[in-house]
Prior knowledge:
This protein is an alpha/beta fold. The chain has 2 domains: about 35-205, Nitrogenase molybdenum iron protein domain (Rossmann fold, 3-Layer(aba) Sandwich); about 210-310, Nitrogenase molybdenum iron protein domain (Rossmann fold), CATH 3.40.50. The protein has 11 helices and 8 strands. It has helices spanning about 1-30, 40-50, 75-80, 95-105, 115-120, 155-175, 180-205, 220-225, 245-255, 270-280, 295-310, and strands at about 35-40, 55-60, 85-90, 110-115, 210-215, 230-235, 260-265, 285. The strands form 2 sheets. A 4-stranded parallel β-sheet has the order 2-1-3-4. Strand 5, helix 8 and strand 6 (about 230-235) form a beta-alpha-beta unit. Helix 6 runs antiparallel to helix 7. The radius of gyration is 25 Å and the shape is globular. The model is unreliable at about 5-10, about 10-30 and about 130-145 (pLDDT under 50).
Amino acid sequence: MTLRLTTIRLALFVGALIAAFASFALGQRGQTAPLNVVVTVAPLRGIIEPLLPPGSKITILMPPGRSEHGYEFSSQDLSTIAKSDLVFYVGLGLEPRLEQALKKEEPQSKRIEICFATALGIKSDGHEDHDEEPGDDHDTHDHAIDQHLWLDPVLVKRVVPHLGKAVKNAVVATGGAEVSAETDKRAQDLAARVAGVDEAWRARLEPFKGRAIVTHHNAFPRPAQRYGLRIAAVIRGLENAEPTAAKIEGVVRAIREEKVAAIFVEPQYNARLAERIAREAQVKVARIDPIGDGDWFSLMEQNLESLVTNLGTK
């Protein structure tokens, strides 16, 4: 009798232990684990970060303060990518080595990859596949080489649902519970905030429609066309080549003919040449930043403020 009771108690103990372990394992799997995310350029961080589970880590491969063009990914960068759960990049040839590395990835990799351009159907020939939104007076079909998709709030808003889906897939791939409702709510909130940025740009730049600007490099054709500005000239047409004397003369001529009020320089480039051109053309120099430090909303607010402040008459 004693032996039988002991056996029963032992069976109950083992059963309880198994149940507790199963419950613990299920609970562990049911948790939404933080994600290890890699983005190529700083502004992409500010776009995807609001959608991530708490505690997630984001690595920016191209250091803020450097030009986004011609950056060579190091072996360490590629190792960081290999260890990540989610990679968010621009495409359109901005990160060719990254794209080559992703194509060579082992088929069994569970990492989720999302390309900004591919998600929106924007191709390297400048064509874009999307449905126009109400109030969208912008034709983006002529941007053959403009890779700066993040500088157009309308495009950022359109990519948010794709990012939300990528985040959900990454959570599941890492063994976490599905977080559809939670991520969808975050995506809705983020899209609303981005729409607010678009509305602010439209409203504040409305009085300046048709105004011409000169930029340091060709980073702003999308927002310029979106909000009714004209780019009269670009100082540095080729990212890694110094402008010729003829090019500089052409910029000065464009400034005078188009009645440009300011040259907008970028912190990624030395401003001395722009300052020399500004002195010759008798216009001011202002700052506009295509990259920022990772806070997309702050970047767009500061750029808008600079445009509004400096687009007045000379």
